[in-house]
Amino acid sequence: MDARFTAEQDEIRRTLRELLHKRCGSEELRAAVDTPAGHDPALWTALAEQLGLPGLALPEGYGGVGCSVTELALACEETGRALAPSPLLATAVLTAPLLLALGTDAQRTDLLPRIASGSLTAALAVPGPALATALGLTGHDPRGEWAGGGRAGGVQARQADGGWRLYGQVDQVLDGHSARLLVVAAHTGGFARSRVLLFLVRGDAAGLTRVRQTALDATRPQARLQLRGVEGELLGYGGDDVLPALARLGDTAAACLAAEAVGAAARVLERTVEYVGQREQFGRPIGSFQAVKHRLADVYVQVQAARSAAYYAAWATAQGERVGGLALAQALQALRGAAAEGIQAHGGTGFTWEHDVHLYFKRAAGDELLFGPVHRLRAHAADVAHVFEEAG
User: Fold this and answer.
1) What's the whole-model pTM score?
2) Rama region for 19: left / alpha / beta (φ>0; ψ in -120 to 50; rest)
């Protein structure tokens, strides 16, 4: 394994960092999250046209760049540094790989080039607060019971008039209020022969109601979807088992999320180090006190360890090794620690809405609610590896 980045990978990081520095500062970030979409469409267009970000990991035959998960993770690291609100996670990380893996030739040809160009945004709708379970990060559910059955937040799919109709409700859908395409997980076949299938639903479909929800992390807008006889198109040919595909997606998504969290942790640490070098107490910068140095040194070690784990997870995904969940656990813990120390070091100003440091803490807490928590990520990884099983 060559741990060095290629010139192309370094260029992706450098160019993206420069663009986000110019287009996604503190004022631009706060203005974007207050818009109905929850992100700046002009910035998304720039990311698509100048960098090809939505299609970074899509094959060139579908209009993508043809890079690997490693390049996508590096891009996520940079968007994490800026806490950039964009459809990148929902579209390129969570949805596009499913379309590529399960879609028919016609579906791939129709949808993937539009995703790669940035003209089509997409979102994955998993019923209930079970996204981490559906992606195989915090548990294993071979029957797909997390998808519900049309009640209590679940979704049921029924055949009617030669097509499919979807009924039910889905909460906590990332970018679900603005995505032009939804990939909805639904139960079908009744209780005895129940199975989970994925369906394509247009964002403007009749019978679909989408409401943006108030989220802890405003930079990750979420929506509630209500489906009342909504027309859906079956993703793929119907014979594919979507549960293994979701599990494979989960490992890829975890690697990208880990890199994103590492970027955020590194940035909040940088800001904290800069601040303690300026803030004075007893006539000297507080950064000169040994206690402050030790605390921030511990954070630095955590961030560097999390970065190594995230990079390895991104590389290992292509090799068939599933370590994304562990890398995500380490990265989320590093981000929470860095943000907490940042708030503490900034004193009273760190607790105010006007300062950006609290946004990093909310990113860590919000990601744990969606994809964790950390102890469950680690516990499931241990179960999969049979760490605590007695030898037979």
Assistant:
1) 0.94
2) alpha
Interaxial angle between packed helices 242-276 and 324-346, expressed in degrees from 0 to 180 and rounded to the nearest 10: 30
H/E stretch holding 167: strand 163-174
String of DSSP letters for 119-133: S--EEEE-SSS-HHH
CB burial of 357-374 (b: ≥16 within 10 Å; e: otherwise) equals bbbbbbbbbbbbbbbbbb
11 contact partners, CB below 8 Å, separation of at least 6:
none
Token pair recorded at residue 283: 């006539």
Phi, psi of 162 (to 5 degrees): 75, 5
Quote the pLDDT of residue 1: 54
CB 156 within 8 A of CB 171: no
Question: What percent of the chain lies above the pLDDT cut of 90?
Answer: 77
Of the candidates 88, 135, 82, 175, the one whose C-alpha atom is nearest the C-alpha of residue 363 is 82
Report d(CA 170, CA 131) in Å as an integer. Answer: 11
Q: Any idea how long the chain is?
A: 392
Compute the distance between CA of residue 33 and CA of residue 210 in angstroms, rounded to an integer: 17
